[in-house]
Amino acid sequence: MSAESGLPEGWEVRRSNTKNLPYYFHPATKDSRWEPPSGTDPDKLKDYMARHHSSKGVAPAAPQDGKIRCAHLLVKHRDSRRPASWREPRITRSREEARELINQYLQEISAYEQDSNAGKSLPELATAESDCSSARKGGDLGFFGHGDMQKEFEEAAFKLEKGQVSPVVETASGLHLIQRYGRHSP
């Protein structure tokens, strides 16, 4: 156990570049998570976080120049750069199976866009189905600018009109549906 942070041996606290939030990382195993690993001393961690990772520098609630806010739904496959998620510790579906799944989600979102009593919204689906930890926030990624996301994701997101949902976007992380926040967005 690390005497200062209260984390189990080998674990450290890092800050996410995209979300500007602290997360827990084990360099030897490459394991990363948003929640503290088991065996953490909660009192020591709370004190450590207050001293070293306080809210100074947390992303603002309002956009900065050139930044946009989006939500997304991610479907990973076994060839994704990290084939695991909060839902599944080991993702074994093929890229083709992932594409079928995300196309079903796109159909549900399209149905919802036509009639809110049919289908489901992207945030509703992301909460239950996304392989990204942003699922707990309805897929909300907060504000980001150029250079903050993977190239393919960023290019698609910045082309969207407010409220618009993208077609399927493929990155090293998997397959995404992206919705830019705006007047018609959740």
Automatic annotation (TrEMBL):
It is an enzyme of class 5 (isomerase). Residues 5-39 form the WW domain. It comes from the Eukaryota. PROSITE patterns: PPIC_PPIASE_2, WW_DOMAIN_1, WW_DOMAIN_2. Keywords: Isomerase, Rotamase. GO terms for cellular component: cytosol; nucleus. Residues 41-50 have a biased composition (Basic and acidic residues). One of its GO terms (biological process) is positive regulation of transcription initiation by RNA polymerase II. The keyword Repeat does not apply. Residues 65-182 form the PpiC domain. Its EC number is 5.2.1.8. Residues 24-64, 116-137 are annotated as: Disordered. This is Peptidyl-prolyl cis-trans isomerase.
